[in-house]
TrEMBL record:
Residue ranges annotated for the IclR-ED domain, each copy included: 89-274
Gene3D superfamilies noted in UniProt: 3.30.450.40, Winged helix-like DNA-binding domain superfamily/Winged helix DNA-binding domain
Entry superkingdom: Bacteria
Keywords, in A-Z order: DNA-binding, Transcription, Transcription regulation
Name this protein carries in UniProt: Glyoxylate bypass operon transcriptional repressor IclR
GO molecular function, one term: DNA binding
Keyword Electron transport: no
Region Disordered, residue ranges: 1-24
InterPro entries, sorted: GAF-like_dom_sf (IPR029016), HTH_MetabolicPath_Reg (IPR050707), Tscrpt_reg_IclR_C (IPR014757), Tscrpt_reg_IclR_N (IPR005471), WH-like_DNA-bd_sf (IPR036388), WH_DNA-bd_sf (IPR036390)
GO BP annotations listed: negative regulation of DNA-templated transcription
UniProt xrefs under SMART domains: HTH_ICLR
Domain HTH iclR-type: 26-88
């Protein structure tokens, strides 16, 4: 009877070597992407030693990865200090995302979850900076028989709507004054704010708490809580809101609903590739 050959076969060894090489390539890719993130967080550029320290890699390894990305145009080294910064190729790749994103597609799952959590209708609103109005572009209706809805395409004044006041609160003082000069503060209900001083006082509160509140200021009996969505430059361009009758949104629910819309707006901002407004 022939003796069994106990010598390991070469293909098995090759597969193991291939797996090890693959693991190393994935690790290098991960490290390279982390380096890109750290460089992007330093718009003025960053030194190799500082970068290595931040990511926990030896200078030699960091330099090897940077050199590879530099050859492909994803990073560049500039100035007398040899600071590393983002390259044109990284911008080109990132721009592909900006061109393909769709606000409604990104926001709709968040709107549904927000409606379920709040038990009230959730709305997606964008800001028309030509007419200076809020425009409803998406909505998930609640299951209650009594609903107070703004139709898709419906327009609301900035100073008398939750989303509109969230937008106004995100503007600097000079821009805010220009908007108010163009729009004025028309009266809609007994709760409408019609004096600039009182509106600015309320907008300051919006900035501090992170969400805006409309207490029947455009339609009596309707309450709305809203928070802004920001683009990649940190500018407010949309908002998510929750609206319903005053009987179901008493004062004690406002803070909770505010927390829900703030969380939802932050999630949409992140998925859209935006960044929150910097605190003043």
């Amino acid at each position: 009877m022939a003796k069994a050959d106990s010598t390991p076969r070469t293909p098995t060894r090759k597969r193991a070597e291939g797996g090890s090489a693959s693991t190393g390539q994935v690790q290098s890719l991960t490290r390279g992407l982390v380096l890109l993130e750290r460089i992007a967080e330093a718009p003025a550029g960053i030194m190799l030693t500082d970068l290595s320290m931040q990511v926990g890699l030896p200078n030699s390894t960091t330099h090897r990865l940077l050199t590879t990305m530099q050859q492909m145009g994803f990073v560049q080294q500039t100035g007398d200090l040899g600071l590393w910064s983002i390259g044109v190729r990284a911008f080109t790749v990132g721009s592909g995302f900006l061109g393909s994103r769709d606000l409604s597609t990104i926001a709709m799952p968040v709107l549904r979850r927000t409606m379920e959590a709040a038990g009230e209708t959730s709305n997606l609103v964008v800001f028309d900076t030509d007419a200076w109005q809020s425009v409803v572009v998406g909505q998930v209706q609640c299951r209650e028989l009594m609903r107070m809805l703004a139709p898709i395409g419906g327009r609301l004044p900035l100073h008398a709507s939750g989303a509109g006041k969230a937008f106004l609160a995100a503007q600097d003082a000079e821009h805010l004054n220009r908007i108010l000069q163009k729009t004025g503060l028309p009266h809609y209900t007994e709760h409408t704010i019609t004096t600039p001083a009182l509106l600015k006082e309320q907008l300051l509160r919006v900035q501090q708490q992170g969400f805006a509140f409309d207490d029947g200021e455009h339609a009596l009996g309707l309450r709305c809580v809203a928070s802004c969505i920001y683009d990649e430059s940190g500018q407010a361009f949309a908002a998510i809101s929750v609206s319903g009758p005053k009987s179901r949104i008493p004062d004690e629910r406002i803070t909770h609903l505010g927390s829900l819309v703030m969380q939802a707006a932050s999630e949409i901002t992140q998925h859209y590739g935006g960044k929150p407004r910097k605190s003043s």
